[in-house]
Structure formats: structure tokens, C-alpha cells
Amino acid sequence: MFKVKRVYGIFLITGLILLIPLIAMQFTDEVQWSLMDFIVVGALLISAGLAINYIHKTLKNSTSRTLITIGVIILFLLIWAELAVGIFGTPLAGS
């Protein structure tokens, strides 16, 4: 179903993205992530990447593929924003 190279690519890109806050934590006190923060964001990135990969493998119609991919990206960004700053005030953000 999935090509192994694509899945490895998703994990590699996720790791590279997670290096950004890890490196920033070494130089400033403005970024303070715990291990759980890295785990949650890693799971979100991997889930979004695998969902987009699945969409592109299964849907042949480019319009639906594009619209659903945009939906996955918007959902990812909304969840990320809620976890980061609690813009909606749900219990996910700890408010």
C-alpha cells in the first residue's frame, strides 16, 4: 500500500522539523518544549504526512485530491494552533 521510501521520507522530514525547536532550545529560553511536546508534534506531523500520502495514492481525481489535502493541512494547523496557544479555549490547550 505505502512505498517504504515515502514513509521513510515522512519520518525524515518530521525529524528535521523537530530539530528546529530542539536547536532553538539550546540558544534561547524563549523555546521551552518538554518531551511530551516533541512526541505530540511528531505524531501530528507523521499523521498528516501519512494521511496526505494515502490521499495521493488512492484518489485519482486531482480536484478532490487537492481539496482533501488542503483540508488535512487546515485541520493540522488548527490542532497545532489549539495545542500551542489555545485559540479556541478547548480542554486540549489546558484551559
UniProtKB/TrEMBL annotation:
Q: State the UniProt keywords alphabetically.
A: Membrane, Transmembrane, Transmembrane helix
Membrane-crossing ranges are 7-27, 33-55, 67-89
Q: What is this protein called?
A: Uncharacterized protein
